[in-house]
Each structure stands twice: as structure tokens, then as C-alpha cells.
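Working notes for the structural subgroup meeting. M.R. asked for a predicted model of this chain before we commit to crystallization trials. I am recording the input and output together here so anyone reviewing the notebook later can reproduce the run.

Input as submitted:
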Amino acid sequence: MHADISLTPENVVDFRLRRQQLRAPYGESIDNVLRNLLAVQSQEFPYARWSLAQRTTGTTADEVEQAVADGRILRTHILRPTWHFVHREDLGWLMGLSADRLHQGNKGMYRQTGVDEHAAARSGDILAEALAGGAHKTREELAAVLEQAGFPGKGLGLVYHLMHAEISKILVSGAPVRSAGGALKQTYALFQERVSATGNVPLIGDDREWALGQLALRYFTSRGPATIKDCAVWSGLTMKDVRLGLQVAEESLPGALATVAIDGLDFCLPAEDVEPISATPPAAAGPPLPRVDLIQCYDEYVMGYSQSRHYLGGRAPYFPEGDAPIHVVLLEGRLSGWWRHGFSGGICELDVRVNRPFTTAEQQALEAEAERYGRFLGMKAKLV
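Returned structure, recorded in C-alpha cell form:
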């Protein structure tokens, strides 16, 4: 439906924070969070763990790592493509939507690195054999296997052979392992051993339309208000496909989504969020306490939007010069600075740099968020 109402920038920010579970009601578990968001960008694994945990009440880094080890949460190249967390229940059909466009987008690099159809089939068979029977191997171990068979063991050649195998549903993430120095290392496992057999069925006809409807419904219910272009860029699909997905979603769940005009653009959002906008808000008991969030620079609150990312109130993600941190400090849902973590003597040191001096209440909110991050890590965290 198209609702004849207007939204303020504050409405947009408030709805996005709540729908993304950065505000109550939080997810009951990280599985719940990931099913809600469908896919969560995760190329920086230590920070991506926090993206899931901070949307719950009390999940720890160890619990996220265990979910990855168990295979409930899988990490692979999908959508644009880059690394994402996807729940094992969703990876099969979501990769079915992504695979053709990912391969098409990689064609130039496939040619440059010699990953033609014949080479990809051979390397895929070799990788599958190396991981058969529940073997989980690190990138370095698989590189040695490929190199022994005459394939590149380093550089872009290795990268694109592995990525081709991921997109082709041969490889997916395995259980992380600790190196001798204690660093967490990712592994690969067989897709067919970590995802149900139905995840290997190609999406055609009605199945593909169903998947488009699922993607549209879950994107807009978890990230709305957002535009069709926001969804297309996020998913790597065409705007035509997103529109078809919205049509399928409306047919399967009539009235679940609504469209509103904001700043001359049409935004989709859950229909249940539309009605309260025109209602008179209850009188506040007192001035609201400020809220500070430390989110990763690739958090879905940032990367879930392109055309309408400006509601963040600043430019992110970005790559600072020198030694500046890259991750995002939010004050009331707006970009207000940058942060990163470091570790020394068993303590997490948080380097936080804000765009203006915080008030006493805002500084207290930042300190509370630092304490929450420490509880997530299971160690003391302090601002430096």
C-alpha cells in the first residue's frame, strides 16, 4: 500500500535502529538476529562478531564463534560480493539468487587469473576431495593442495579459485581454529556438509520468484524505511528483480509492507510502522538519556543502504589516512566519530575519537558502551 504521510529524518533513524535490532526489541539469539537481517557483512571477523552480538542481550564473542564452528552461522562470499554471515537455513536459496550475477561480475578477474570453466571444474574437484569427510582446512592448507596440483597457491589466482568454488556451492566456512599465537583463523568446509541438500537445488521459475519475495520481505522488514535502489545495491540484484520481489511479497503477505514518500523518493517499510507516525507521542517523563553505539564500519546500519545512506549523518565506510580508526561511533543513531580496539596486557583498549567534545551524559553513555563491549569479549575494556 502507499501511505499518504511524511516521515522526518528522526523517524527514519528511529525505525532503522529498531528494525535492525540496535534498539529494543533485541534478538533473542544471534540466530534470530541473522535470520532477521538475512546477511551481515563480515570481512573483518572480530568486529563482525560484535555486529551480531550487540543486537542481543548478553551474547559473547565465544558464543558467536561457537555458532560459526557448529555451522549454524556460515561465512562466505555472497551478494555484492564480499564476505557475509548467513544462517545455514538461508544460504542455499540466497546463493541460488546470487550465483549467476556473482560469476558474471567476476568474469574479468576470472579471465585475468586463468579461472576458466575447465580450470574451475578441476580445482573445484580437488578442493572438494581435500575437504571430504568433514575435514576443515585453512586457506593456507588449501593453497598447498592447489599448488601441488599445479594451480596458483597465492595471489589473485588463489583468491578467485576459492571464490569460484564458494559461489559454485563447493566451499563454505568451517570451524575457526586458533593458531599457535592465539589468533583466530578461518577454515573452509564442504558446502554440502554444512548446508542441507535442498540448498543445492537451482532456483528456476516459481522457486526463484519465491526467493525474490523472501529477500524483499526480509530486507524491508529489517532495514525499512529503504528504497528499491537501496535493496538492489545491497543484494546485487537488479531493480527489476527487487520490484518483482515486492510484488511476490505483497501477494503472499498482503499489507505487510507500505510505501511512503520521503524527500521526493518512495521508501518501503513494514506497514505496522506507518500508523504510529501520525499519532500524538506520549509525553516524556523527562529528558531522554543519550545513547552511544560502537558499530563496525561495515555494519548493516551502514552497508544496508546506498541511495539513502545520508540519514546516517556522515560518510561511512571510508578509509582514513594515517593511523586513524575506521569503525563508527553513533550518537542517537548518527555518525559522531570513529573507533577501533586493541589489546594489551589482557585488556581491550578502545581508541575512540569523536567529532565534538561529548557532554557529561554522552561521555557516560560512551563508557557504558565500552563496558558492554568488554562483557562481549570477556575482558576489561577501557577508553584510551
